[in-house]
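Most newcomers find our protein records easier to grasp once they have seen one. Sequence and backbone structure share a record, each on its own labelled line. To make this concrete, we reproduce a full record directly below:
***
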Amino acid sequence: MPRREVATVGEVTPTPTIKTVAEAAGVSPASVSRALNGNPTIAPEIVERVMRAADAVGYRPNGIARSLRTRTTKVIALLIPDIGNPFFTAVARGVTDAAEAEGYTVLLCNTDEDPEKERRHLAVAEQARVAGVVLSPQGRDTDISRLRQSRIPVVVIDRPLREKTDAIVVPSFAGARAATRHLIEQGWSRPACITGPASADTARARLRGYRAAIREHDGMPEIVAHADFRQDGAMLAARELLARADPPDAFFVANAPMALGTLAALAERGLRVGSDVGFVSFDDAPWAPYMTPPISVVAQPAHPLGERSARLLLESLRTPVERRPRRITLSPTLVVRASSLRPPRG
């Protein structure tokens, strides 16, 4: 009888299972299953814990088997930088209104302008097999390759991606240039720009718009400060500008939370907006018309932007065929109120 030879290939590492992930995450296997299948009833912090544990133990769900069981989730993931920003609050409402009208649930993820948090949320979306993703990316190089591989459609809003995908944007450059031109036309001679971090495309575009308007006037100084897109950062930036020997006499500010910080810094010095200092903010926050004086703004169509992004995504789900990415541009509007009007000199 011929002798059999058995090849030894070394010790085989056991394949991680849902139970392995559950033990690593400190939750039940049922919770792991719900998190991986995109069940909207499970808390986002549990989903994130499960996804981190799955990455740590090397678990990869069987997407084919799961899709046979669940067909497709009726969940859309919405990733935005800051739900506290009134612009993104209105965008989220628009996405939710359009999605719920078609029977979809929206899973809201707040990235806080943090690339690592954004990466984790995108991993959650991919592994949970959401139907699609609406994304306001942290930067142009945000990686959506895993979503592509899983054939999960993506619509980018507010900020473009280097990778070609469906997108809906509002031209920040044009809005910022119009706001700065308006301040100069009103007779303010030293307008400053407080914009967001240099890593954010919208912050750079708004700064370019401001500079384009300033450079139309020979000898007019560029007075610029960068801060995060939040109230406290803008307050510190405004304080520094106001402490200069030659402080600005007007401000163009890059978003609504930053506007509140800048207004607080002006109030500290007893400066009156619309009298001592001119003021325009990007985004028409709900409180802007009710301030004393009312605040001039560059208004973005936030709710329509959210609605159209969800509809564009749902259209991709209904007709999942290869096609060229679509880019939709919505126009900003300069809304002039008393904060930017210079009183007559008497």
